[in-house]
Design a protein that fits this description.
The structure holds 2 protein chains of 2 kinds. Chain A is of the alpha+beta class. Chain A is 26% helix and 27% strand. In chain A, a hairpin with a 2-residue loop joins strand 2 and strand 3. Chain A is globular and about 80 Å long. By secondary structure, chain B is of the alpha/beta class. Classes of the chains: A alpha+beta, B alpha/beta.
C-alpha cells in the first residue's frame, strides 16, 4: 500500500495549465489542459434512471442507519493501476448498474451501498459531487453535545436529522447547455472552470483527455446553486478587451508569435485570478478513500459568509498532481447555515457563549438560527422569547 | 446601419456625393448585404439557429430593397449564392411598382438571367413562391412564361418537377405546348401519351419495369410503390442518376451506416462538393483512397483556377479546423470543406504556397495530410497568422468562421500590430474569408478592424472574392463599388444573351 497522502490544504492545479476562456451568453468556460497525460486513472460514466437514490452510508444495504437521499443521474466508475501501467478502456460489461432497484417505471428508487464503493479489482464506484455534498450535510450532524435546556427533544435525541439542502441541476442554468454544445474542447483538455456571469460556479477535472471529452456534457447533470440560475439570466458576458498586444514590443514578425503566447499566458493568469475564490483558499479536507497512489478527499473552503464558498471532492496523486476535481459553489444561505452550525459547535452549543463569540445578542442569534431554518432545533418558548 | 441616415434620393439610384456621411453609410450597407448574400442560406449554423438566420437575412433583404433598389437588383450579378438570388428575384417581382422607369429594363433582364442561372428546382420554387405571396402582375407572368420557354426540355421538367411546373403554369396562366398541359393536370390517369417520357411516367405507375427510364427522384417514389428492393432499384437506376445525386446518396447512406456501392467520377465534381464528400467519409476510407482523392481534388482545383485564372505569388492560408467548422446538421462540415477546398485552390493558383491549419495538423499522417482533417479543437488563429506573416507571404488568406478563442482576438491583434509596426505600407495583404453568416452582426463575423472580411460561398469563388476584398476594407469608394457591380452586370447579361442566341439557333435547327 502506498503511503497515505497528507490532507489537502488548498486546491492547487498541479500539472494543469489554464487556457483562454470561451464565452457564450452569460457563461464563460475556461479550459484546463494537462501538461503530461498519464493513462493509469480512468473514469467512466454510469447512468442511473431512477427518480431517487438512497445511499446507505453505514451498515449494509437496507440496514438501519444514516441514509443519503437524492436524485443521482449518474455515477463515476474509476479504474486505476497501482504501478502506473495504462488502464485498459473498459467495455460494455461495465454498464451493469450497482446496488438494488426497487419499484418500477417513474417510481423506481435505487438503493446504493456507500458513496464510494470498491468493485471488483482496481475499480471504484463513486457518486460525483454527492461525496462532497454528503460531507457538507454531515457537518455537526450529531447536534448538541451538551444537553442544554434550550434545545428541543428532537435536537438532543436525533441531532440535525433530517438535514436537507436544495440544489438545481445544470440544465436549469440558462445557456449552460448551449455553452457546452458550442464549446471547442482542446486536445489536451482534462477539465473546465464554469463561470456564470463571471462568478465561479464549478470546477471539474479528470485525469485523461478522452474521459473529459466523454464527460463534457455530464456537467449538465451536475448540480448548481440556485443563484447560478439567476446569474444565467444576466446579460451576455463581453470579451475582456484589455488583454491585447503591446505594439511597442514588436520589432519583427517572430516577435508576433512570442506576443501571441504572452497573450495566452496573460489570459491564463487572469482566469486564475478570477477563480481565486476556490484556488488557493484555505480548506478543511478529509480523506474518503485511498486507492493505490490516489487519495480521494472531500473538502470545504473556510466558511466566510462574506465570500464565495465551495465544497468539493478531489483525487490527488501521491506526487501532488491533481487528477480529479469537482466542486459545488454553496449559496449564501447554505454558507450561513454551515457557518452558524460551526459557531455553535465551537462553543459547545451554548447559545450565550456563541452569541458572545459572534459579537451579537442571544436573541439575535436565536432569530438567525430560526431564519436559517434551524428553528426545529430549539424549544418553542426560546423562539418566542427571542421574537418578543 | 441607420435607416434615417439614408437620403431618399437613393431610392431612385442617384449616388450621394463622394466622401459624405451618406456615401459611407450606403457603401457599408451594400458591402454588408453582398457579404451576407455570399454566405447565408437561412439554414442552421454552428452558432446560430435557422430561425435567427432567416429573420436576420430577411430583414437585410427588405432594408436594401427599400433603400437601394437598383443596386439590390445588380447584386444578382455579384456571384452570390442561389438562396439569396432566389430571395432577390422574389423581392423584385413582388414590388415591381416601385421600380424606376429608367431601370426597369435592366431589372427585368437581370431577373431573367438570374432565373436561368439558378438550378431548375430553385427557379421553379421562386415562381411557385409568387403564388403563395399572391404576386401576380404582368411582368411576373411574362417572366414565368419566358423561363419555361427557355428551358431546354420542358417535358423532362414537367416530369421531374411536376408540382412546381404546374404551380407556376396555373399561377401565370401559361399556355403549354403539346401534351404538357394534359400531363400536368391529368397525370397518369390519361389513357396514353405520345410523348415517350410522359408515357413512361404513366406506365411506371402500373409496371415496375418502366420506372428505370424516369429521373431518379421520380423513380424512387414509384419503386417504393411497387416494393422494389433498394439494392435492385439502385443498381438498375444508376444510369439515370446525376453525379450530384450519386454523391448525395452515398453520403446519406454512409451516415445511416447502410453503405451503397455507386461509382462516379470524383474529378468531375466541383471542388467544394468534392471536399464535402471527402469529409463525410470515415478516416479509414480516406486512408485507403488517399491518392485518388488527392488527384481528384487537384484536378478539380485546376479546373476552377482555369475558369478564373489569376495567378498569385507567395501565398499563405490560415485555415480554421476548430470544432465549430463542423457546421450544423443542415450544413454538415461546410466551413471545414470550404477551408480544405480553398487550400487546394490556392495551391493551384500560387507560385509558392503554405497552409497553416489551426489547430495544427499532426505530421504523422504523412503525405496529403490535409485529407485527414477533422473539425476538432480550439480556434487559435493568432499563432498561425503570426507564423504565416513570419514566413513572408505577400498574401495571407484566413478562412474561418470568425470566432476565435485561444486567445480571443488573437488574429485581430496580430493583424493590427503587424499593420501598425511592421507593414504600414500594406505590402502584404491579409484577407479574411468567412463562409458563415452571423445573424447578430447581419454579416459574416469579422476578425477585427485590420482584417477585411468577405463572405465566401464556395471555395471556387475565392479568387474572384479577392477582388471584392478592397470594398470590405473600406478603402474603395461607393462609385467604385457601383462600377464593379455594373461590370459584373454587363458580364452576366452578355453571357445570358449568347446563351439565349445559342438556344434560338438550336431551336431553328
Amino acid at each position: 500500500m502506498a503511503k497515505r497522502a497528507p490532507p489537502m490544504r488548498d486546491v492547487a492545479l498541479h500539472g494543469i495549465e489554464i487556457a483562454p476562456s470561451q464565452v457564450r451568453g452569460a457563461i464563460r468556460l475556461v479550459p484546463l489542459l494537462r501538461r503530461s497525460v498519464k493513462e493509469d486513472l480512468r473514469f467512466l460514466k454510469r447512468s442511473y434512471q431512477e427518480a431517487a437514490t438512497v445511499v446507505s452510508l453505514d451498515g449494509e444495504l437496507l440496514a438501519p442507519g444514516v441514509k443519503y437521499i437524492s436524485y443521482v443521474p449518474h455515477g463515476l466508475v474509476v479504474s486505476w493501476s497501482d504501478d502506473g501501467t495504462p488502464v485498459a478502456a473498459f467495455g460494455a460489461q461495465m454498464s451493469r448498474p450497482d446496488g438494488k432497484r426497487i419499484g418500477r417505471g417513474p417510481c423506481a428508487v435505487r438503493i446504493a451501498h456507500r458513496m464510494v464503493k470498491r468493485e471488483e479489482g482496481n475499480r471504484l464506484r463513486m457518486l460525483p459531487l454527492h461525496v462532497a455534498m454528503e460531507g457538507f450535510l454531515a457537518l455537526c450532524f450529531d447536534g448538541p453535545d451538551v444537553a442544554w435546556s434550550e434545545y428541543s427533544k428532537q435536537a438532543i435525541s436525533t441531532g440535525l436529522s433530517p438535514r436537507w439542502e436544495r440544489v438545481a441541476p445544470g440544465y436549469l442554468v440558462p445557456g449552460l447547455a448551449d455553452a457546452l454544445r458550442v464549446f471547442e474542447i482542446h486536445d489536451r483538455q482534462v477539465g473546465v472552470l464554469v463561470f456564470v456571469a463571471d462568478a465561479l460556479a464549478s470546477a471539474f477535472v479528470v485525469s485523461h483527455p478522452e474521459d473529459y471529452r466523454a464527460l463534457h456534457r455530464s456537467i449538465l447533470e451536475d448540480f448548481f446553486g440556485e443563484l447560478m440560475i439567476h446569474y444565467g439570466l444576466l446579460p451576455p458576458t463581453g470579451h475582456l478587451s484589455t488583454l491585447g498586444m503591446d505594439a511597442a514590443r514588436v520589432r519583427d514578425a517572430s516577435d508576433l508569435i512570442a506576443e501571441v503566447e504572452r497573450m495566452r499566458a496573460e489570459w491564463a493568469s487572469f482566469h486564475g485570478f478570477m477563480a481565486e475564490g476556490l484556488l488557493g483558499r484555505p480548506l478543511s479536507s478529509k480523506q474518503v478513500y485511498q486507492a493505490g497512489p490516489f487519495a480521494l478527499q472531500r473538502f470545504m473552503t473556510d466558511l466566510r459568509p462574506s465570500e464565495e464558498n465551495h465544497v468539493g471532492e478531489a483525487i490527488v496523486r501521491d506526487d501532488g498532481e491533481l487528477e480529479y476535481l469537482k466542486t459545488y459553489r454553496l449559496s449564501a444561505a447554505q454558507t450561513r447555515r454551515a457557518f452558524l452550525l460551526l459557531q455553535l459547535a465551537k462553543h459547545h452549543w451554548n447559545l450565550d457563549a456563541t452569541a458572545a463569540g459572534m459579537a451579537t445578542t442571544r436573541d439575535d442569534l436565536v432569530k438567525r438560527l430560526s431564519a436559517a431554518g434551524f428553528g426545529y432545533l430549539l424549544k418553542e418558548h426560546v423562539l418566542k422569547a427571542a421574537r418578543a | 446601419m441607420a435607416p434615417s441616415d439614408v437620403p431618399s434620393v437613393q431610392a431612385h439610384g442617384a449616388s450621394p456625393s463622394p466622401g459624405s456621411r451618406a456615401e459611407r453609410v450606403a457603401r457599408e450597407d451594400l458591402v454588408m448585404f453582398i457579404n451576407a448574400c455570399f454566405s447565408c442560406t437561412g439554414q442552421r449554423e454552428f452558432y446560430g439557429d435557422a430561425r435567427g438566420q432567416s429573420v436576420s437575412i430577411e430583414f437585410l433583404h427588405e432594408y436594401i430593397l427599400g433603400n437601394y433598389r437598383r443596386l439590390y437588383a445588380r447584386t444578382l450579378a455579384a456571384g452570390i449564392n442561389h438562396f439569396n438570388m432566389a430571395q432577390i428575384v422574389t423581392g423584385l417581382l413582388a414590388t415591381g411598382r416601385d421600380a424606376h422607369p429608367e431601370h426597369r429594363e435592366e431589372e427585368g433582364a437581370l431577373i431573367r438571367a438570374a432565373l436561368r442561372v439558378l438550378p431548375p428546382q430553385r427557379a421553379l420554387r421562386v415562381l411557385g413562391a409568387l403564388r403563395s405571396l399572391r404576386v401576380n402582375n404582368r411582368r411576373a407572368r411574362a417572366v414565368a412564361r419566358d423561363y419555361l420557354a427557355g428551358r431546354p426540355d420542358v417535358h423532362f421538367d414537367a416530369v421531374k418537377y411536376r408540382a412546381k411546373v404546374r404551380a407556376a403554369a396555373v399561377h401565370a396562366h401559361l399556355r403549354l405546348p403539346g401534351e404538357v398541359g394534359p400531363f400536368l393536370f391529368r397525370g397518369w390517369n390519361q389513357r396514353v401519351y405520345e410523348t415517350p417520357l410522359f408515357e413512361k411516367f404513366r406506365a411506371g405507375h402500373y409496371a415496375a419495369a418502366s420506372i428505370y427510364d424516369l429521373p431518379f427522384s421520380i423513380a424512387e417514389g414509384l419503386a417504393r410503390k411497387h416494393g422494389v428492393p433498394r439494392d435492385v432499384f439502385l443498381s438498375r437506376i444508376e444510369g439515370q442518376m446525376t453525379s450530384a445525386e450519386k454523391m448525395r446518396l452515398t453520403e446519406a447512406a454512409a451516415r445511416e451506416k447502410r453503405p451503397v456501392d455507386l461509382r462516379f467520377d470524383l474529378a468531375r465534381a466541383p471542388l467544394t462538393k468534392l471536399a464535402l464528400y471527402l469529409l463525410s467519409l470515415p478516416l479509414g476510407e480516406r486512408t485507403e483512397r488517399r491518392d485518388e482523392f488527392h488527384v481528384a481534388l487537384q484536378r478539380s482545383a485546376a479546373r476552377a483556377f482555369s475558369r478564373a485564372p489569376a495567378p498569385l505569388g507567395k501565398v499563405a492560408a490560415v485555415l480554421d479546423r476548430s470544432y465549430s467548422a463542423s457546421g450544423s446538421s443542415e450544413k454538415r462540415r461546410r466551413p471545414l470543406a470550404v477551408a480544405l477546398a480553398a487550400s487546394y485552390l490556392l495551391r493551384a493558383a500560387a507560385r509558392e504556397y503554405r497552409a497553416f491549419w489551426s489547430p495544427r495538423l499532426d505530421d504523422e499522417r504523412g503525405e496529403h495530410g490535409e485529407l485527414f482533417v477533422q473539425a476538432r479543437g480550439q480556434s487559435a488563429l493568432g499563432r498561425p497568422l503570426a507564423e504565416a506573416l513570419a514566413w513572408g507571404a505577400d498574401l495571407v488568406v484566413v478562412v474561418s468562421d470568425g470566432f476565435e478563442n485561444d486567445p480571443p482576438a488573437g488574429a485581430a491583434e496580430v493583424a493590427r500590430v503587424f499593420r501598425a509596426r511592421l507593414d504600414p505600407q500594406r505590402r502584404t495583404s491579409i484577407v479574411h474569408m468567412n463562409p458563415v453568416f452571423d445573424e447578430e452582426d447581419y454579416a459574416p463575423r469579422g476578425l477585427g478592424a485590420a482584417l477585411p472580411t468577405v463572405g465566401l460561398r464556395d471555395a471556387e469563388d475565392l479568387l474572384t472574392m479577392l477582388g471584392f476584398a478592397r470594398f470590405a476594407d473600406g478603402m474603395a469608394r461607393l462609385d467604385e463599388l457601383e462600377d464593379y457591380l455594373a461590370a459584373r452586370v454587363r458580364e452576366m447579361l452578355g453571357r445570358a444573351q449568347t446563351h439565349a442566341a445559342r438556344g434560338r439557333g438550336e431551336a431553328r435547327r
